Input
Amino acid sequence: MKALNSIVISGREVLPVVEGGKGVSISTGQSSGPWAAAGGVGTFSAVNADTYGDDGKPLAQIYHGKTRKERHQELIAFAIKGGIAQAQKAHELSNGQGRIHMNILWEGGGSEPILNGILENTKGLVHGITCGAGMPYKVGEIATKFGLQYYPIISSARAFRALWLRSFNKFREGLGGVVYEDPWLAGGHNGLSNSEDPKTPGDPMPRVIALRALMKEYGLDNTPIIMAGGVWWLSEWEHWLDNPEIGPIAFQFGTRALLTKESPISDAWKNRLRTLKRGDVVLNRFSPTGFYSSAVNNAFLKELKERSEHQVAYSHEAVGAHTESFRVSAVGNPVFLTSADMARIAAWQAQGFTKALRTPESTLIFVTPERAKRITTDQSSCMGCLSACHFSNWSQNEAGTTGRMPDPRSFCIQKTLQKISHTDDIEDVLMFSGHNAYRFGEDPFYANGFTPTVKQLVERIVTGY
Output
C-alpha cells in the first residue's frame, strides 16, 4: 500500500485516522484519549455523556422534573457535566499526543447550550468540534468563539453548499475539515435525501470528488475531507491516497472502534459484533428524528417492524369502503374501517395484539397491552433529548411541542441508547452499527476472539488492514 502520510488536523500533524463519534456513552474519553495517544484524532461524544462517581462507575441520570421542560433543563445540565468529564478523561489519557475532538448532534435537544457549556469549561482540552445530524449552521460561529476548528458532517456536496452560503463562509478560518459520511454505509443516523434510493447505494468516490470540486470553488483546496462510513481496510482505499481529484484525505472509523479493550460497550455487545453476518445491519426509518438510521436487525427492530405491519387506515366518517364501525377506546366517537381490515384486526387480536393506538397519519396500529403501556409511559416521561421528536411530539420551541400527534410507531431513543450503553441487553434495545460490522467475523485480525487495544488497532489500520 502507498505510504500513509500525516495530515494537519486542528493545528497538529496526525495520522489520517479519526475515531468516529458515537453518542450516549459509546465514544468516551476512555477510548478517544488512547486513540489520540496513538497519534490519530480521538473523538468523544457530548450526547448524554456519562459522569462518574468516586468509584469510577457511571452515575445514573435520574430525572426529577414534573414537566418536559423541567426535565429538558436537567438533560442539558447532565450533558454539560458529562461532556466536561469526558474531555478531562480524554485529555489525561492522550498523553499530549494527537488531537481530541468532541462530537455533538445538531438535532439533539439543547445542542447550543450544551456545546457552549462544555467548551466554557474545557479550555485546552478539546481541539475540534464535529457536528452533524441536521444542518449545523451555528457550529462555525460557536467554534470560532472558542478558538477551535470545526468539522461539519455532511452526505453530499449540496448540503455543504447550503451550509457554506448561509454561514460557514463567514467563519472560513475555523473550518478544519469536512466529514463526508456515506449515507448508505455509516452507522447511526444517515443523511439520505428524499431523492436517494435507500436500497441502491451510491459510490462514495464521485460524491467526494464533487465535494472537493465545490470546496475548490470556495478556495478550500487544502482543507481535509474525512471519509466516514464503510471504511475498514485502508488498502481498499489506496486509490484515494495522493489523488488530486480528492485532495487531502483522512479516514474515520466508527464501527471498528467499538471492538477494543478500551471501548466502554458491554462484553455482550462486543461478542455480538463477532457473530454478525452480511445483511444483519439494516437501514430503517423508525427513528424519532425522522432520519434513516442503520442498526442491527435484532428483536428491537423486529418489534418496530411488527408495529407498522399491524396497521390499518381509518376514516372519521363512513365513506367509500370504510363502512365498519370500530371503537379505539371506551370513550370518544368510533372510527370506520374496511371489512378486509376488520378481518385482519380480528386475526391480530387473536394473537394478543388487542390494543389500538392512533398514529399521526390517520392509521391505527395494534400492539399487546404491555407494549401499549410501555409506549405511553415512555412518551409521558420525555425529557426532550431531541430538538423535535416524532415519538413524543416534544419540541424545544416555546410551545414545547411539534403540534403533531405523538407517533407510537417510533420509540424513545434516549431510553434505549442509555440501556444498551449501561446494561448487557443487546436484543430489546437499539444497536446502532455500520454496515461493515459483519467483517469482525471475517477479518483475521479478530480471530480466536482477539480484542485489540486502541493502540494495537491504530497500528493495524496504518498497515492498510
Notes: The two ends are 10 Å apart (CA to CA). The chain has a mean pLDDT of 96. The chain has two domains: 7-278+437-462, 299-422.
